[in-house]
Amino acid sequence: MTLNSEQRGVLRIGTRGSRLALIQADSVRSALLAAHPEWRAPGAIEIVEIRTTGDREQDRRLADIGGKGLFTKEIEDALADRRIDMAVHSMKDVETYLRPGMAIAALLPREDPRDVLIAKTASSISELPRGAVLGTASLRRQSQVLAQRPDLKVRLLRGNVETRLAKLADGQADATLLALAGLKRLGLDPLPGTPLSADDILPAPGQGAIGIEIRADDADLEALLAAVDHAPTRLAVEAERACLAALDGSCRTPIAVYAEPADIGGDRWRIRALLALPDGSEIHRIEDHADAAAAVMMGAELGRRLKAKVGAAFLARLETS
User: Which of these is catalytic: 93, 115, 174, 229?
Assistant: First the structure.
């Protein structure tokens, strides 16, 4: 028997309060209503805004104030305290290991995971003027751009999408990189920049994917969410996060991982991973293919192989960079 609103009461969806985060939370509500029409009564599904430390602290890198978990901590606190029933996250913001007692119950279909270069006078990294200032808070983006253009300067640029675009317009940087998924969800058409291929800038693990986190013991809600879980997205994100876990990476480590179908049917998968020094002076790549059933295991294996490939000396340099 399917759980209904009379049995459960109001379903509360916790999310950050940015316009993009609210759009993502509303997409979860819409997916639930499409799959479960019995929840369409007014007020049956409520969106709860939660302000996170990551949103409040905008003048320092996440690495310096506690890591990307600062975008999820307060939301997970609300979930643990039963003030909300589920949390909606951008999966690239979710820490490598979930808090005990929590689970990702569903993932919506993944949006395009590529990055977009936004610059006044360039449509590619090679076209940026010599010595141009790249505004970013992402070591992953910074390292890959500097590997191609070591002459560029990097300046910290944080905030939501609108804030970063405004800072760019104000001249605080000559260029920046933003996730294409967020720009598309915000309805920015035409795009304010040029999408870059994964060959140019490999995406972050989970980029473009929306995850729904619940308490692991909430079997009724898990069953309800099963109808909106997108299997190919789950496979990709789990493979990428398995690689991330094997690399034991943090937000201080420039890591990129991307898993994608290698054929039309999705029977074979291609997984690519990258580990770099923040200044782009050294960058290591690895990739392999696996059947869908073994993609997650391959993700973990690639992480172990990449860690062995770079060696202890490189990892030590990462710790002090």
Answer: 93
